[in-house]
Amino acid sequence: MKQAITACLLCGNTLQPVRSWWQLLSNQLAPTLCEACYSNFEPAQTDALFTYNEAMKAWLNQYKILGDVQLAHSFRTELARALKTTAIIVPIPVHPAKLERRTFAQVDMLLDCAGIRYTHYLCKVEDSTQGLRNRAERLASANPFILAPNKSATGKHFIVFDDIKTTGTTLRQACDILTQAGAASVKTFTLSASEL
Ligand SMILES: [Zn+2]
Q1: Distance 125 CA to ligand 1 centre (A)
Q2: How far apart are CA 94 and CA 116, in angstroms?
Q3: Within 13 Å of residue 169, how many CA atoms lie on the same side as its CB?
Q4: If you measure from the C-alpha of residue 30 to the centroid of ligand 1, how many angstroms do you get, rounded to a whole number?
Q5: Distance (Å) from CA 37 to ligand 1 centroid
Q6: Distance from the CA of 76 to the center of ligand 1, in angstroms?
Q7: What number is the average pLDDT over the span 6-27?
Q8: Domains plus CATH for the chain?
Q9: Where is the Phosphoribosyltransferase domain (predicted)?
């Protein structure tokens, strides 16, 4: 997934080639947005890279709704730096049916482009697959996630990753599953977050 990108992914302006010796040595990923475009994104305070401002809103729309897959490279350098960890990265899963419609796994793709290893410890369960749960479980919780089959979370450290945090409900539900399954610790990190 490591790809040479020579033009800004958002405006198409030519990017200054950065070929310093330390960049080659550290194997760091080169920027994919020009300085002008990049300056529209606002760094977040905690547990997220950026705030959900107008630039991020437009970016998410172009990436997720319009399906501009190439944009997955936009923040690869920052993500690689932020998620340098010994914890297991767990992307928020999309439901398989939804995946078919969208044709690509947007959250996974962000990690792929940043060269970040991750494991799917969670599966998404929706109406059509509610049969996977028994009646008591269905009644007990509205949690759309279950622990992935054949996965043990016991004693492990996790960082749950998603592209956006709004109310935090999705992340909390995902964390609950891992915690209930015996995780030693569960943290979260997102590309963007609304400052509520
Ligand atoms: Zn640009």
Answers
A1: 39
A2: 18
A3: 4
A4: 14
A5: 4
A6: 16
A7: 77
A8: 41-193 (3.40.50)
A9: 150-191
Q: Is the pTM higher than 0.70?
A: yes
pLDDT value at 103 more than 90: no
The Å distance, Cα 73 to ligand 1 centre, comes to 13
Task: Say how many Å lie between the CA of residue 32 and the centre of ligand 1.
Answer: 9
CB neighbour class for 20 (10 Å; exposed up to 12, middle 13-18, buried from 19)? exposed
Tell me, in angstroms, the distance from the centre of ligand 1 to residue 33's CA: 5
Other C-beta atoms closer than 10 Å to the C-beta of 109 total 18
132: CB partners within 8 A, 6+ apart: 125, 146
93-101 long-range contacts, CB within 8 A, separation 24+: 93/120, 93/122, 93/123, 93/124, 93/145, 94/124, 95/124, 95/125, 95/126, 95/129, 96/124, 97/126, 97/128
What would the two tokens of residue 16 be?
């200054």
**Token code pair at residue 176:** 């609950």
